[in-house]
Amino acid sequence: MLSRKYRLPRGEIEKLKSQKGRILQGNLFGLLFQKDSGESKFALIVSNKVVEKSTERNRIKRLFYQAVEKELLGINGKFLFLAKKKITTATPESLRTELLFFKKKVT
Question: What CATH code would you report for 4-106?
Answer without folding.
Answer: 3.30.230.10
